[in-house]
User: Fold these one by one.
Assistant:
Number 1:
Amino acid sequence: MMTTHTVMLSLVLALYYPFCTAKVKPTMPAWDAPLAELWQSPDGVGAQSPSQGPVATRDLFYGPWGPERAPDPGAVYTFVERKQQGTNPGITVRDPHGREWHVKQPPHTDQGAEGPIEVALSRVLSAVGYHQPPVYFLPSLTVKDADGTHVEPGGRFRLTDKSIKAVDTWSWQQNPFVGTRPYQGLLVILMLFNSSDIKNENNILYEVKEPGAAPRHWYVVRDLGTALGETGRLAPLRGDPDIFERQPFILGVKDGVVRFNYHGWHQELLREIDPLDVAFAVDLLQQLTDQQWRDAFRAGGYQPRVAGRFITQLHQRIDEARRVAGEQTLAASPSR
């Protein structure tokens, strides 16, 4: 339960924080930006690692890391430590193979769980070219600790993999990709899912190592679980199909800028998104098959009925975005 002090502090931050954001600008000239560190074209152009193949052929159940890295639902996991920060409970555990997993568990409140949302959205982003760490979902896990062996609630499992190392965070406002189509398209996709947790501490810079190759970096948007509900700054409701179905998506286009029904943090990031950015995102998402959409939500542990409601609404939003992009592109074209 929130105390009066906590509520007042949250209100002060909500009023003060927007005036403290950094100016949105690239940190280097666009021609020097290593775009493949943010987004790898699905056709392999500009890729720094082998392409997964065309979007429509990609596995959205196991994701780009495959079944070989997935957690074993029948294993006994050794307790390492309990999560001390954040709004969702969680634990770090080690599996019988010595692999370390960070498990984000359901909250102790009526607020929707982040784990299923995070896995489903992560699958979609990775399928259309945005780098993601290995994440999976299990509804429960067996844990061995000082009190014995018992079953705990599961959730999002994120693997600590030796091929990628989290070395820093990165800023939405100032990074090499500001103004590029993939950067703007990423924001459009997050708007499509009503993602409210757009903050720099969720952006992780990974150092990526491959045998025989020099380390490089991935710019990754992580902890994607505050979505598929309403948008807002103070504890928006998430993972609720009733709420998600009621929320508007695109409010219109003014002075060439697409206006979204977004009430979360960092609205300054959306002030330069134009219809061509929306078209870029739509072109990527429309390459996903119906089965891939179902697999993405199945990966997050969703029941088919609930998944179907979210997918139907997402398809409606994609159609809306396509209409807006098409109408504005035609309006801007010279008459013949």
Number 2:
Amino acid sequence: MRVAIVERRTIHKEGESSAKRLHTVAELLAMKGHAVSFYCLRWWEGEDREKIHNGVRYYAVSEDIEDVEWRFAAQLPSKIKEYEPDVIIADGTELAVVMGSKFTCLFLRKPLILDFYEQIKIENGKSRKSEFIMGLADLAVVPSEMIQTSVIEAGCEGKLIEKLPNPIKIKLIKDTKKEKVADIVYSKVLDKNCNLETFLLALAELRDVKWKAAIIGEGEMKELYERQIKDLRISRRVEFLGDVPIERKIAIFKGAHVCVHTALKSGFPRDFLLALACGCVGIAEYHENSSAHELIRPRERGFRITEGEVLHQTIREAAKLPRKEIEEGFFGYDEKNFIEEYIGLIENIGEFKADKLAKDQSDMGVL
């Protein structure tokens, strides 16, 4: 099978970002023996238009590494046409990219899958445009119920949406030995949405208890929080580890007892899932733009809170549960299951109805 994946900005350019999802799809498809071409802005040095990385062919749609969305989208049909893919999978969050991908699909008479990693933001007065564009998908794939609701509100039909959570490496979890670094862990990019202060304030309320905490991740807010733990007089018990390799991250999770997620925004908190699979008792603070609470419902080793003020009490309750180094209940999130389901979705829309194709061509003025 020949698969074209379209996303302007890649993980190689943005770092450990939400763009990770489509790169996971691309690399797992390549590992399965499928031909995968990833159409994006150039992230590699030099003037070569193509680059092979982890079995995936990356193709620079534009010479301008900062090309705007609409100009990038306009070039897609001519760039993808020669590849003749069996299906196109596109980032559904950029409407211009969706339009460009759909025009390409109509010319090639191939289906379009839109993949979403975050909620859709609809600008004032553009709801009709959004509804039209969301209706162009032959299938939409989302990682969580929260994002599914957002995509439906943006105009996509519910029957076209499949929920497929981001995967984790179960074999790596099984093979990794624990590392006793901390009793309580937090792992996320330390940006303006991480809401780490709620966690730190809760730790300050637990001075009467013996514990150590580790915070994994880098970001613009790190220095602020490093000062805050000094002000709270818990700096000797809290360690900022920065970014760590996945193998060590798993080792730390396996050696910990409780993992806390307080972020205000998270389309799918992979590290929180990883910690749960490593046996951590999970505590998720509910926020409208975070899906973390979905992972602990209805788990016995999970707590959902709606107010940060009760977090310290919840940590005390979580610590009463026995320690574990692995939780088999999360084995279904393995990469093997994920890519097999994704391939199944692709194969099921391989022969989509001719009347839908004709309608799409008419709506978009393609003869």
Number 3:
Amino acid sequence: MNLFRSLAILTLVAVVVSSCAPGYTPVTNQSPHLALGNPSNAQTNPSSYDNYLLNKPQFALSYNRSKGHANWVAWELSPKWLGTIDRQNDFRPDEALPQDWPKIKPSDYSSSGFDRGHLCPSADRTNSTSSNSSTFLMTNMIPQAPDLNREAWEHLEQFSRELVEKGYKLYITAGAYGTGGEGSKGTATKLDDVVNVPARVYKIIVVLPGNASVNEINSTTPVIAVDFPNKNSTVKNTSWIRYITTVSELEKKTGMDFFSNLSSSTQSALQNARFDYRSTSINVDTKCSVYNGNALYIGKSGGCYYLTASGKKTYVDRDLCDCK
């Protein structure tokens, strides 16, 4: 037997032995949703109570058993995920968690003053019934201030899908950190004594041309990082543009390591880039607020307008779009 064959056999034996060892939990980043990296090095070992990896076909997430919600959820958004499937609204516990773990139920949020806020949005998964239904698992929910969930957060979700409709492909990570938020019934730190109420909710969006691969990400690739307070009184009638930050700042606050699969130079450049809506190459207007029942949009040039029933832009006083 030659030396190379012997080494190959020894390597194979080592892999088999290690894979059978108690607690061995290999984690790969083959999921398209983890193409940029696993931000917290989440593991599939049940002993990873507060950093447990759930790698689903529709998204990947790190679940925090102590908090009863995800640390982060990551997903790819491209035309293949968008279709015409209706919202399923089938909120339910996630049975993919270890059998002996407590499972958060939709009723844990009842009458709390907080929304069951999606991290990966329902409308980002409309290509099939099963895809949309997956977003209603409680591991994809956080207690979210209603005025955040239904305004600035939703506007950013819509902006993301409009980017895809314009020919882009996105890699998105959304998560929460801290404790203590403010819902429609005042402040709270826990729901039903089982679900942590986060203080902040964030989102990171990497924007690529639709036909580009992850390997083509470079130091000039647009990155949108947003950090919202989870407070009704603070976020009412404000734009997501007001809460733009950098990935580097989010890393300091969350302890995560975003973009770890990229080269160190590209990772550093993207972590420190602050998205400037007025000078970006992305030319998509974003919803800002509502006036007289009309959704107001703000463009890169600062114009404030709404769309008539026929789709015509009607410009109004710029001060009405002072959502920043």
Number 4:
Amino acid sequence: MQDFKGRVAVITGAASGIGRGLASHCAGLHMKLVLADINLENLEEFAAELSQGGTEVLAVPTDVTDEPAVEQLADQAYGQFGRVDLLFNNAGVLLSGHSWERSAADWRWVMDINFMGVLHGIRAFVPRMLKQDGDAHIVNTASLAALLAAPLMGPYTVSKQAVLGLSETLHYELQEMQARVGVSVVCPGQVASGIVNSGGHREYDASDEGAAATDALQEYLHSGVEAGMEPAHCAEIIFEAIRKRHFWIFTHPHFKDSWREQAERMLAEKNPVYDQLDFDLLDEEQ
């Protein structure tokens, strides 16, 4: 897919972070947009801003954890525009803390948004995309956490590794069908997306040690992740990969040395080792 003018993009989590960066990039390419987000106020404000700039925008308040709501999103997108050329399953949240100290409800909250939200998008849109003429493409937002696990990031890491597994499976399935629908999985490193603050409203009943560790991680995430790449730059990288029909999209390829070391340890049947320095190096490259 090379020419994006006039094409239709659906973006979940569109009112902030990477989703907002993608929407702005799409608008710059003169695309038609279907923006979905659970934050109605931010969604409507952003949609109005894009509309004033001349972009044709349909704003659909959507809770991606609700499968009927995502089906309704697809209904409205196809009802308005008759097709969807790009689907960005992007909505996501993050919680930190020891795996055993996060409640089952917290785990379900993260998994329902980060993983089930992607699955709901695939189930709602893929059957329709297969029936339409021309090329189409799906981009699922995972994370470097899908490839490199880290302490105190259990729900987030597990959800993003599930997104990666689902994306690769979908890629093979569509490939076997010789479908004109491509798949990419984006594994961002440090992007100033605001995701670090997404779980701030949830109560966390932790031990003193657990709370201290979580506070230290939050400080690191704010100083590293939230000071990272601008979403606009991330969107440029994603669209370049779509043009090339690349499955893998990496915003911070320096991580590959760490991943290679872990893969070699696995093949040698050695226990995994977490090295904070591997992630600190990513900050130095911003």
